[in-house]
Amino acid sequence: MKRYNISIIKGDGIGPEIVDEAIKVLDAVAGTCGFELDYKEYLMGGIAIDVTGKPLPEETVEGGVLNSDACLFGAIGGEKWDTLPRELRPETGLLKFREAMEVYANLRPAIIYDELVNASTLKPEVIEGVDIMIVRELIGGIYFGQPRGNDGFKAFNTMVYTKPEIERIGKQAFELAMKRDKRVCSVDKANVLEVSQLWRDTMEEIAKDYPEVELSHMYVDNAAMQLVRNPKQFDVVVTGNIFGDILSDTASMVVGSIGLLPSASTGDKTAIYEPIHGSAPDIAGQGIANPIATIESAGMMLRYSLGEIEAADKIDAAIKKSPKRWL
Ligand code: IPM
Ligand code: MG
């Protein structure tokens, strides 16, 4: 029987409970589809700070997640750790983790379930049939740019992208578009930022290799507005780290709830699968957190990292049948 090594990082807040639900679903489909999953748990985030003093212990990456077939991750963070120096915060652990895993492409699909068209705050006719793939650059841009600092009077960060960084995320977006509706919308702020001009010029160059794909450009402020005004116009959206962070939260509300958007963080090594939402400490431990985004992320893991398509399809079908409360 096929066996896969899966790294599990539950994290903080609702992380443990949503990941536990996803593991139940994974075990159920593994049983019926004829493969086995071996799980190994690793620490990251606030819990890692409490146990080891560091938000990302060395053993989590080296000899840990890097050696597994895929990683399922819940969420990190919480008020308890918000006053720590930045290098010790849970979020810093997550960013270091993404960097160490070299997962430069974060795929965040926003798909509307028919059952949900009335649950969204937007009108049904606006959201019916929405199927967007946000391709967010994950290990560059202003999140990682140097120099950065805060001396109490002046604080600064740097938004920086090199051409190769833009090329690799751009290619991912065009490849995905070839398997979808063959449209890429690149989101930037080229009317103001040099870094966005290079982004835009590079996207134009990549487009020459994909004559079947229609490339358009949109400024990020307009994109935020268009996502809510007419989300159906989008197929693949490719954008930098911070714009992708913001636009994917908006996209989650377009399809009904932030508890519904899964994601896959991929590069050339082990991929990480995680819901796009945070650790929601305010509702942790009450059994009311929506586990669907994590279960969908587990489905993406089966599909993209393990090639277990039948099992992934079963998860998608089961989600559609799940009670409206979760959808
Ligand atoms: C996300 C989150 C993270 C991010 C935080 C927790 C650092 O908002 O995955 O979207 O900004 O990337
Ligand atoms: Mg976010």
Question: What would you note in describing this structure?
Answer:
- The protein contains 11 helices and 12 strands.
- A 10-stranded mixed β-sheet has the order 2-1-3-12-11-4-5-10-8-9, with helices on both faces. A two-stranded antiparallel ribbon has the order 6-7.
- It is globular.
- With 327 residues, the chain is of the alpha/beta class.
Hetero compounds = 3-isopropylmalic acid, magnesium ion
Helix-and-strand structural type: alpha/beta
- The number of helical runs is 11
Provide the helix percentage: 25-40%
Largest sheet: 10 strands, mixed
Question: What's the average pLDDT?
Answer: 95
- How much of the sequence lies in strands comes to 15-25%
Order of helices and strands: EHEHHEHEHEEEHEHEHEHEEHH
Short description:
Helices cover about 40% and strands about 20% of the residues. With about 325 residues, the chain is α/β, with parallel strands linked by helices. Helix 1 (about 15-35) links the parallel strand 1 (about 1-10) and strand 2 (about 35-40).
